[in-house]
Amino acid sequence: MANQEDIFKKVISHAKEYGYIFQSSEIYDGLSAVYDYGQNGVELKKNIREYWWQAMVQLNDNIVGIDAAIFMHPTTWKASGHVDAFNDPLIDNKDSKKRYRADVLVEDHVAKIEAKIEKEVKKAAKRFGDSFDKQQFLETNPRVLDYQAKADGILKRLGKSLENEDLADVKALIEELGIVCPVSGSKNWTDVKQFNLMFGTKLGATADSAMDLYLRPETAQGIFVNFLNVQKTGRMKIPFGIAQTGKAFRNEIVARQFIFRMREFEQMEMQYFIKPGTQKEWYDTWKEKRLKWHLSLGLGQDNYRFHDHEKLAHYADAAADIEFRFPFGFKELEGIHSRTDFDLGSHEKYSNKKLQYFDPEENKSYVPYVLETSIGLDRMFLAVFSSALQEEELENNTTRTVLKIPAVLAPTKAAILPLLKRDGLPEVAHKIVEELKWEFNVVYDEKDAVGRRYRRQDAVGTPFCITVDHQTLEDETVTIRHRDTMEQQRVKVDAVKDIISKEVDMRYWLQRI
């Protein structure tokens, strides 16, 4: 486990050292679970957002985007259920005075059981070599089956208790499993209590006339309240989707794991409006579509899995997470939810406005059902960044730290390096920068020996280094070095743009979907 912790610590320090993520207001000792994106982080974040937007909006002719305000009329949150039911079950340890999410304590315990299964698989793979059949082993090995049954049983019970709001049983489960406080190691727990996660604020000039407002805890409601506006002005026919990206705010009591769980974060959501009765097929379709989008980035198929929800939200008839293998284990990256007609039906009731769709084929009006895909942009950032960070042993017994961010998402696409700071080489290099900067984000770097500059660009995640040397002056060729393979090739200056384009163009990547 320490190994995973060490890897995660390296991810956090690398993110700071190379201008990706800083602690918010760090000069004032920071603000817990709030982070700022640095000069490289903001570019990576923008590129992930754009990769999602192109796949979701640009490539689907029946999906459009909006950007709804963060502030919404307070009744919105009553209608959505957030005022009454947007809670986390919390438990305090009496000895360490630390507060935890009760469900996360149980899930972490299950993760340890799953780690034992992984251990058994690794041992067996070593023993049987090439003839090892992982699937068969998972389905037949008695020890693995016992671990799996134990894990499933715990999650089932937790799901049932949370669904029935039986918080006493959640505490009983924690005690039965012998879960200890990670800080004090003691089992001295308080009762489990519910805690509402919305941030409250005021709107108005004076305290007397001010209206109680909330910072939105999700972006989805902005889509639902605009359903008719978009449908009518865009003359949209069902099925159609509305997408948006934007900030959301949750007063997470137990915010941790770096940018995985923050108090201010960004979501990328799409609500797909469908005919009632077709939700099962659309649910399966979007599960498949979204997984393909993730896999197109090449972060490794083994790093993803589906997790079907035991505990469904009161409005859902099916829900699954796409989980990613973060340095701290498999955790939710994206949710796909079949939300039925709860949202539009509820807003119709609270607003006294008809939120229905007239179906010309059926010649009748109905409240559409909704299929949701929702992904945390910050979590996606962490998935990309943590899986990209690698230490490689090189042939000459040295190591290099390299950030193998998919080229399409990399903050800087190329670094232009003059071999020396004289003989007219910087002038030629600057000319190449001027030419390429219209197409790509590029940097100029002339400090240190060229080998050290390569290492620096590897660590920051730049896919290409273009070196200008004396031969460039003679025949207009440069050396282009590829980050992932470290291969170098001699090419004409005129060919550089096309070589980079092929590797970083969204079109080439999105075609894999």
From TrEMBL:
Gene name per UniProt: glyQS
Aminoacyl-transfer RNA synthetases class-II family profile domain: residues covered: 198-418
Enzyme Commission number: 6.1.1.14
Known function: Catalyzes the attachment of glycine to tRNA(Gly).
Compartments, as annotated in UniProt: Cytoplasm
Subunit and partners: Homodimer.
Binding-site residues for ATP, renumbered to this chain: 250-252, 260-265, 332-333, 376-379
Substrates-to-products reaction catalysed: tRNA(Gly) + glycine + ATP = glycyl-tRNA(Gly) + AMP + diphosphate
Cited SUPFAM superfamilies: Class II aaRS ABD-related, Class II aaRS and biotin synthetases
Keywords on record: Aminoacyl-tRNA synthetase, ATP-binding, Cytoplasm, Ligase, Nucleotide-binding, Protein biosynthesis
Biological-process GO terms, alphabetical: diadenosine tetraphosphate biosynthetic process; glycyl-tRNA aminoacylation
Recorded GO CC terms: cytoplasm; extracellular exosome; microvesicle
Gene3D superfamilies with a match to the protein in the record: 3.30.40.230, Anticodon-binding domain, Bira Bifunctional Protein, Domain 2
Family, similarity comment: Belongs to the class-II aminoacyl-tRNA synthetase family.
Residues the record lists as binding substrate: 101, 218, 265-269, 372-376
MF GO annotations: ATP binding; bis(5'-nucleosyl)-tetraphosphatase (asymmetrical) activity; glycine-tRNA ligase activity
The name this protein goes by in its record: Glycine--tRNA ligase
Domain of life: Bacteria
